[in-house]
Structures are given as structure tokens and as C-alpha cells.
Amino acid sequence: MSIVVEQTLPYTSTDLNIDDPSRWSRLFPLMRPSIKSIDIGNGSSIVVDTALSKSKIVLVVAIVTIGNFSSKILSESHLAAFATDNFGKETISVEKIAEVLKSNGFPTNNGVVVIRAAAKQDLKVNEKVLEIAVVGEVKLDHILSLLASVSEETKASFENVQKLLEHFVKSVARTTSKFHEMKRGNGPSVVHAVEVAEFNSAKEAVDKDLGHLLGSRPPNGEDVVYSVHISDVNGLSRLENNILIHEVSEYFAKKNLPVYISHSTILDNYSQARGWAISLCAVPISSLAAQKKPTNILADSTRKVASSKPQSESSKIQFSDSEVRKIITAGCESVIKAEPTITEYDTIVGDGDCGYTLRDGAKQVLSFIKNADLSKLPSTLSDLVDDLEVNMGGTSGALYCIFLSSLSQSLSTSPTFSSAMQCSLNHLLKYTRARLGDRTMLDCLIPFVETWEKTGDVKKALGDASKGVETTKKLEAKLGRSSYLSEAATNGVPDPGAYGLLVLLEGMVRLE
Fold first, then answer.
1. CA 176, CA 17: separation in Å to the nearest integer?
2. How many DSSP H helices and E strands does the chain contain?
3. pTM above 0.70?
4. In sequence order, which ranges of 104-172 are alpha helices (DSSP H)?
5. Could you tell me if 130 and 148 are in contact, meaning their C-beta atoms sit under 8 angstroms apart?
6. Measured between alpha carbons, how far is 275 from 261 in angstroms, rounded to an integer?
7. What are the pLDDT digits (tens) for 97-127?
8. pLDDT for 414-433, tens place per residue?
């Protein structure tokens, strides 16, 4: 998970002109040919999707806050129209929207639902026009996702949609959690709805939020499906979003509760703090079908190596529990000790979370090996990956898991440890675009593995890895968030991921 309080942005909100109400009415028609922008006076416009002019379902319209734009507005194909408005002003009336839709050939007799972000929750119905005001973009996105996911019978009936949204207003609950600059304990803190707490893992944070939501809206005994909408606030990475969704899915699976999960990204123009928001509503099963358990993308990528656990008995390499334990312990302790330095580097050129991610991963490894049989290293590594998948976040966490999962397989078949490392490196390169010279952890890993395999000299390999890390001080970043920074900003600072890996390897190799 990310721990960044404020994003590293290449452009300011002013440069991006985010507050311009006509921004998307100009740009969106260029992105989708069926889009048409209609000027309604007073500097306002309504953007309609003419592809839905022959729709047989209830028309859905969204009025969003200028500057707080959601990905749902651009991605939802069932959205007949949208407009932007200043928060709390309500200068665009639902009557005007219905008039514009009707004059442009939309079947308003099907019914029109207008969803608006507002300071107060409300629902009004005038003939076949329903206006629902919700507090916050996450609830607005939740309704858009819900109306796209409900049964066709519900979508086609204004009365059924009205009944569903009346239930939503009474039953929905939401919570927002954001990372904060102050620390709690040894780690970053997260401001939850109920408390400010130390961030230890995505699972713990998500469990806290969902426990609060379910406690505030207990089930009433009816047959329901829990509609859960997750919004990442200010751009968490794809991996971080996958981890959040996985933890939400696991939470409901363990409680044996049917769930339908949806997702969006929200830009909060008033605060650059990053985090997530969750909106929850128990929906009658007659309107919404439960979702199959989402795939854990991270787990899938690591488990594609083989369909079964490696058999340590078939390994051609013999492992001593005590020797392997000393090597792993030395490497992990080196990483834990170096966390402040790694964090300092990543604060300058990245998100600021690399040191914490590697430190927490090292602590998890030390905890795991306490009761593990390291003489059976291949199968033990495989079990360790299962543990790290959900306890070590960030891009580096995913790369370590993929590499170690492959290594657990390669150690069972390779004649030497160095050849097993080479096989694992080749496998890892299938899952990342990063290569030597891209200013990533691979600038350490590639020279280490290739030199060790070529020469059989692990200390020479460590020397080449050190040289690789040193070169990152002068390299231009091509991937990751460092790529948004100028070369002058990164010059003289090693890539934090590469430096962290070097610290791990130095601790392991120098013990020998």
C-alpha cells in the first residue's frame, strides 16, 4: 500500500485548468464520437451521449463538482448525460436537463434519474424525473455503478429504480481513509472514520473500515446482496487498488456474505492526500445478483509459474537450515536497519513508501521463518510467497513475490543456486517492462544474477550489483513516479528500490 500524503505532480491544478467548467465539454467529444456538448447559457453546458437516444431503460444523468472529477463519468456507457457545477450552487436544474434530453430525441418518457453531489442527502420526484443528491463523489459513483449492475427488469422500470434509490438513501453508509503525515508507532498513520491508526497492512485497514460500515448498517434479515463501491482517492496504483479489492472480497467471503464490488478513481482537488473511500449498501437480491469472487491478480501472476507446490525432495541442491537461516536473517536485518536511508531517497524521487515496504517485508520474512524448515527451501519459499502476497504492498512487493515464486520452482530443478536465480530473473522480465538502465531495482538485480551465473563468483556479482546501483544516480527514470521528475531532481540520488535490494544482498553475501 502507498503511504504518500501528497502526490508528486508534474503540473499544478492551475496548469491543468481543472476548475474550468467547460473543460470536459470540449475534450470528451474528441474522445467519444457519440458525445455532443450542448450550451445552456450562463457559461454552462450539458454533455449528452447520442448513442443512448434510442435507449429503452431509465435515463441516467450525473452532475459532478467542478475540480472533483471521477473516472466513472468517462467510463460509464449507460450515462446519458453529465454536467459540471460548483459545489452547493445547483445552477443547473433537473427541469433544464430533462428539457435538453427531450429536445435532442432522448426517450424521457422512460424516466430520468439525475444524480448530484451535494452538501446534504435528499431525494425528490416530479412526475418521471427523479433527483437524488448525495454527499461526496464516492456515493455518486456508487449509484452510477449500481444502476449499471442491477437487473434489466430494474433498469427498464422507473418505479423499480425509484424504489431502489429510496432504499439506497436510507441504507447507504460510507467511510473515507487517508494517509496522514504524522506517524503512529513505527509506521505511517491512516485517518479512518473512527480513529487515527498506524498502518500495518491493507487487510487490517480494510477490516477496520468494513467493520465500522457493517456495524452502522446491520442487515435486517432480508435476502440482500452487499453492494460495495471502492474509490481510490487521488490515484493509488493499480497494484494497490487490486490489493484493496482483494481484501474487501476476502472480508465478505470469510463472513459468507454475498457481495457485488465496483470501483472508481476520484480526484480531490481540495486535498492531495491519498487514500480510499468505501460506500456500502445492502440491496435486495431481486435487484442485484451477487458477484463471483474477484480474481487476485497478484496471486495469479505468481502462481502461473506452476500449478503445484515444488517438491523439496527432488531438489538437486542441498540446503542447511542453520546456514540458510543465518543468511536470510542477516539480509533482512540489514534492510530493516537501512529503512531510514531508503525512505529518505524515496521521499526525494518517489512516493516515500519504499523504505517502509521493504522494512515491513523483511520483518514479515523474519516472522515467517521462525517456525519454517529451511532445509526444504523450495517449498518453504512457495509458502512464504503466499504470505507476502497480502502483506507486502507496492510495486516492489509484487516484483519480489513474482521472483521468489519462480525461484521456489527453479530451485527444485536447477543444478546450482545461480542458475535458479537466472531462470527466475528471466521469468520476472515477462511481467515488467523495466530493463537495465531504466532506473529501477533491476539495475541491481540483473548485474548480480548475470555475473553470478557467468562467473560463479557471488562476491564479484555483488560488486557489479553495487556498480549498477551507483549508475542509477545519473540515470533518467523511465518508469514509475520518478519518471515525472526532471533529471535534475533525481541526479545524485540512487533508485530506492535498487539500493534496498543491494542492502539485502550485501547482508546475505558478506555473511558467507
1. 26
2. 19, 13
3. no
4. 137-149, 152-155, 158-171
5. no
6. 18
7. 999 999 999 999 999 999 998 888 999 999 8
8. 999 999 999 999 999 988 88
| Greater pLDDT, 415 or 478 | 415
Render the burial of 309-324: b for 16+ CB within 10 Å, e for the rest: ebebeebebebeeeeb
Burial class of residue 99 in the structure, from the number of CB atoms within 10 Å of its CB (0-12 exposed, 13-18 middle, 19+ buried): middle
196-198 sheet: strands from edge to edge: 196-198, 187-191, 173-184, 275-284, 224-233, 259-266
Please list, in sequence order, all residues whose beta carbon lies within 8 angstroms of the beta carbon of residue 156, skipping any fewer than 6 positions away: 56, 57, 58, 110
337, 507 Cβ separation under 8 angstroms: no
CA 503/CA 335 separation, integer angstroms: 6
Give the separation between CA 146 and CA 165, rounded to whole angstroms. Answer: 10
Bridge-based pairing state of the strands 259-266 and 224-233: parallel
H or E segment and range at residue 259: strand 259-266
Residue scoring higher pLDDT (270 or 16): 270
- Residue spans of alpha helices (H) in 370-495: 377-389, 394-413, 417-428, 442-455, 458-471, 487-490
Q: How far apart are CA 3 and CA 354, in angstroms?
A: 9
The cell for 466 is 553495487
* Identity of the residue numbered 229: H
Mapping DSSP onto H, E and C, the string for 48-76 reads EEHHHCCCCCCEEEEEEECCCCEHHHHHC
Helix axes 496-509, 458-471, angle to 10 degrees: 160
Q: Which of 447, 429, 435 has the alpha carbon at shortest distance from 478?
A: 435
In terms of Cα–Cα distance, which of 415, 413, 470, 402 is closest to 439? 470
What is the greatest pairwise CA distance in the chain? 81
Residue 440 carries which DSSP code? S
Contacts of 275 (CB under 8 A, 6+ apart): 176, 177, 178, 179, 190, 191, 232, 233, 234, 236
* Cα gap 286→167, rounded to integer Å: 13
Identify the three-state secondary structure at position 167: helix
Q: Is the pLDDT of residue 3 over 60?
A: no
> Cβ contacts of residue 391 below 8 Å, gap of 6+?
201, 203, 360, 361, 364
User: Which cell numbers in the block locate residue 23?
Assistant: 473543460
State how far the Cα of 270 lies from the Cα of 377, in Å rounded to an integer: 50
- In a 10 Å sphere around its CB, with 0-12 CB exposed, 13-18 middle and 19+ buried, how is residue 14 labelled? exposed
